[in-house]
Amino acid sequence: MWLKINPGSGVPIYIQLMEQIKHSIAIGSIRTGDQLPTIRNLAHELVINPNTVARVYRELEFEKVLELRHGAGVFVADRPANKDRSDMIQAVQPHFRKAVEQGTAAGMSEEQMRALFESEIDRSKSTGRKGK
Amino acid sequence: MNVPAIEFLNVSKSFRQKQVLDSVRFTVPQGAICGLLGSNGSGKSTSMKILLDLVRPSEGRALVLGMDANNPAESLAVRRRVACVTEDKSFYPYMTVQQVLDYARKFFNGWNTERLSVLLKRFELDRSCLAKNLSKGNRAKLALTLALCRSPEVLILDEPTEGLDPLAREDFLQELVQASLDGVSILICTHQLAEVEKIIGSIVLLEKGKVLLHAEVETLKEKSRFYHLTFRDQPPAQIAGLPANARISRAGRSMVVSSVGERWDWRKSFADLGVEEKPMTLQEIYGEVLKINREKRGGDGNLE
Amino acid sequence: METWNKFWLESRTRLFWISAVYFLMAVGVAWMILKVPFIREPHMWEAQQRDLGGVQSDLFGFWFGFIQPFLVIPLALTLAPNHWTTETANRTVHFSLCLPVSRRSETVARLLWFHLWLAFLVFYTSSLLFGCEVLMNYPRSFFSHLVQCSLNTLAFGVITSLWFAFSSFLWDQSKATAGTSLLVFLLAVPLLYKKESFPGLYAVYELLVGRQWFLKGEFPWRSVFLNLALIWGFCEIGIRRIEQKDF
């Protein structure tokens, strides 16, 4: 699992971390029963406030994405929530992949594709439609 | 665990008729990492000095771990449990690094020798170097080392990364994370917002001696936004229903509304308009709060 | 006390040079006493007043009343009884004040340390004078020498603690020196009158000149108590000012 926090994005760090953990589970880079780093190790690795990590783990436990076993550590829960998300990603991923392939074929750079993608998200938000 | 690490209770301070702090009131709970922000002359350093009994308040009280920081008897107890890095990162010019460490060590029972060796190695400090020959960066590193080895309960840091190279800054942040994991409460005063944004849990923003903002960073970020409105014709002169801490800037047919700490439900007034929402970084929040405050002060001519 | 180690490291070089310079001065004076007839002649004003004969009272007065005050005090002041001003200049004052030591205890430690060194300077160079007198076969009591050294130290202590009090307000060493010098000069004016009716005013100088002790064999109790009170008073003023100061 590779986590990268962007402090300058304006998105709260705990939200970024939660999304990235959920995403890692959904795409299968960590699986049910796998152990996550301890709060201490993750805080050190990402150089973030340990209270933020604690909060993320607590919220994900509340959402039944993670399981906190006292004395043992933090583990990926065997829960439908994870599976639903995994299905959702599986459904959407091919479309994303196709868009990236088309962009690359048209000669777009990575930054151009990212910018285009972000502006599409903003556009969808501004027209009041949410893809939930 | 109920006693806050730091408490400012309506602290005011004047130096020669000039008001430096005006009824400052905020709390830092134990175990938290709080950033004290503000422009130069806002009163940040004075606040920190009051906690360390370098300066005495004109009114109000400052408490550290429940003890009055400026009461002669209690202030000694405070200084035993608190470590600090002050603005002046200078040491006795006639002492070597080792002598400074030996001297400081005599005052504290909880001196952590292992941590000391680890830090000296990490920061690559030469023990035999005379303090007056240390570079600015090395002085900052020594100040940090001295603060961290004495196993404090509270860390008070005034511009701790000033003079540090990027690698040392990373080391310093790692040490802060470690300190936080050890249960240390931290108050850090800095201009390097981008650097400490990941670490800070809450912020207190001072401007001209007054507290403008005191909030949890993540909550603040969730509720603060830039709203970019594009109109077909001229934008309206006034907009109703804006949040309390909001600011408008106009450019042609566009208008940017920035709102700190409160989401703006623009759909009530501009449902049919194209509105782009963008989140705010801590730096941007800081800038917007200062601008909003200055506009408010300029508008009615009074201090807020 | 931990701070004594700091004071030692801070000033050991300066102490060495001051002691050496003063020693050389003392050697110079001793040479003059032994060799130069002009000094040995009983011509100083003290000689007119004395009831004991002999040159020893001239030397005594010359040494304790003139040489020492003008040499010891300026040299000693370079050791800075108010170390906070030096630390402010070095920008280490915040570091020192953040350590868990009360301002009062560190300041008192410094004053004590300073005055012990002052006493050392007075005693060790006066021992040279004593050596000269032994060589010249003057009937000299070692005990009376010791007492006079103590009285001198006390008198210098009044001036240095006055300087300390000034420096706690003015915070600039040269301003403190100017203020102290002015007051010392003003205190010396009554000396010109030599009136017995103002003994309190020149109590400081009485001790230095040693008239009462050496010439008459009377221990100057009144002066001693007055000077101890002055030292305590000036130090307390300075310490309180330092305790209240914003750094």
Walk me through the structure:
The complex is a heterotrimer of chains A (132), B (304) and C (247). Chain A has helices spanning 13-26, 39-46, 50-62, 80-105, 110-126, and strands spanning 35-36, 66-69, 73-76. Chain A has 132 residues and is mainly α. Chain A has a three-stranded antiparallel beta sheet. In chain A, strand 2 and strand 3 form a beta hairpin. In chain A, helix 1 crosses helix 3. The longest helix of chain A is centred in the C-terminal third of the chain and has 26 residues, at 80-105. By secondary structure, chain B is α/β, with parallel strands linked by helices. Chain B folds into two domains: 6-208, P-loop containing nucleotide triphosphate hydrolases (Rossmann fold); 219-296, Alpha-Beta Plaits, CATH 3.30.70. Chain B has ten helices and 14 strands. Chain B has helices at 44-51, 72-81, 97-105, 113-123, 136-149, 166-181, 193-196, 217-223, 267-270, 282-300, and strands spanning 6-15, 18-28, 33-38, 59-64, 67-68, 82-85, 154-158, 185-189, 202-207, 210-216, 225-230, 246-251, 254-259, 274-279. In chain B, the strands form three sheets. In chain B, strands 6-7-8-3-9-10 form a six-stranded mixed beta sheet, with helices on both faces. In chain B, strands 2-1-4-5 form a four-stranded antiparallel beta sheet. The two termini of chain B are 35 Å apart. Chain C has one domain (2-39, 53-244). Chain C has 247 residues and is mostly helical. Chain C has helices at 2-35, 37-40, 45-49, 56-77, 83-90, 93-98, 103-135, 142-170, 173-188, 203-209, 211-215, 221-244. In chain C, helix 1 (2-35) packs antiparallel against helix 4 (56-77), helix 7 runs antiparallel to helix 12 and helix 10 (203-209) packs across helix 12. In chain C, 78% of the residues lie in helices and 0% in strands. Classes of the chains: A mainly alpha (132), B alpha/beta (304), C mainly alpha (247). The A-B interface holds A 5, 7-15, 39-40, 43-44, 46-52, 55, 122, 125-128 and B 31-33, 170, 173-174, 177-178, 180-181, 194, 197-201, 217-219, 221-222, 267, 271, 274-284.
- 3D shape of chain A: globular
In total, the number of strands of chain A is 3
Give the number of domains of chain C: 1
Query: Would you list the SSEs of chain C in sequence order as H and E?
Result: HHHHHHHHHHHH
